[in-house]
Known about the structure:
It is built from ten helices and 14 strands. The protein is of the alpha/beta class and 372 residues long. It folds into two domains: 15-101 and 109-240, 3-Layer(aba) Sandwich (Aspartate Aminotransferase, domain 2); 244-370, Aspartate Aminotransferase, domain 1, CATH 3.90.1150.10. The strands form four sheets. It has a seven-stranded mixed beta sheet with strand order 2-8-7-6-5-3-4, with helices on both faces. It has a three-stranded antiparallel beta sheet with strand order 11-12-14. The chain has a two-stranded parallel sheet with strand order 1-13. Strand 3 (76-79), helix 4 (86-93) and strand 4 (97-100) form a beta-alpha-beta unit. The structure holds ligand T4K.
Amino acid sequence: MNKEIYVTRPFLPPLEEFLPSLEKIWENKILTNGGPFHQQFEDELAKFLGVPYLSLFTSGTLALITSLQALRITGEVITTPFTFVATSHALTWNGVKPVFVDIDKATLTIDPLKIEAAITPLTTAILPVHVYGLPCATDEIERIAEVYGLKVIYDAAHAFGVRLRNGVSLCAVGDISVLSFHATKVFTTFEGGAVICQDAKTKRRLDDLKNFGFVDEVTNVAPGINAKMNEMQAALGLLQLRYIGGALNRRAEIFQRYREAFAAVAGLRLHPIPEGLSYNYSYFPIFVEASFPMTRDELYDSLRKQGIFGRRYFYPLVSNFPMYRGLPSAAASNLPFATDIANRVLCLPIYPDLSAADQDRVIKAVTTAGKG
Ligand code: T4K
């Protein structure tokens, strides 16, 4: 049996470069609650991403949950079913009802043309997802939000480092953008996340909320939570910033190689990367069309038998999970494109340390399947 190849592996810097930070933490005995590494990482990350205000969190999910609290989101929120469950679960944890809107096949993100029809008097926000780091139709979404007085919170868990054609960070748009630094993400601090916002007041509220609602020793202003990034995570994040450029370049090379190898395989569709986008190559989704000799699930199983563990991100659709499938907006008839895409997608292994030999194995396994 060949060695197993996973959909991703975390990029980690050399251990010996991390050890001095650990020694410092052991010396300081400051482990959390906004210590020196936390403050430095927050500043450097905001500069790196080119964003105005940033607050670090223990995970992308807690960052999402707390963002919704910070903006006092209630009632209904319009979102996409083609995402990881955390997007909708964050709404549910806030007692807010998700309203699912279909995706646009051209962007794989929420279809802006279908948002207005889903707005009701209870709608308070839109929660779109830059799925695979591909930008949502941000201009159109902001326009709708402006007209209807809605907040926009982007789930930017996949969008680390992506810049739009004009050089603006994709995370700098909307009222809030939420990043994830989970082990499976382009940029990792083991677990972790960040919220990007547009003004100091919102950052302060986020900072208070992630620390139980405490403003000072005796003043508690809201029923907050504990979502503070600790010093070990922050120290790792600082070191990761030194390596992220090289890691993204490696991803770009593998992405390009796959694209060339699969371009001519009949029945496989690849998603185009928008022109001028400075992309992060976070995922490599392929879409298995009816003309391919196998179904998507047959291809998924066949690769697994060869030790290649691709993942069907995102199948099943979030709207098909038990806690959501009873909602009127969860009906498959309301979500035809998302349903189709979720049934066709397979994400292939891509990560900086994926060796040329392992890339060859993936390419051979997929192209051989394509020959029937
Ligand atoms: N919004 C969106 C759009 C998201 O995609 C996510 C997370 C969130 C919000 C929430 O952010 P966080 O709260 O997680 O920060 C994974 C992750 O657990 C999840 O973080 C991620 N999205 C989602 C897309 O994928 P699984 O169930 O696929 O993970 P798992 O454990 O099967 O890992 C996949 C492969 O990665 C493994 O086969 C091997 C490799 N791996 C994984 C881990 C955890 C490693 O090599 N090392 C590791 O430590 O959900």
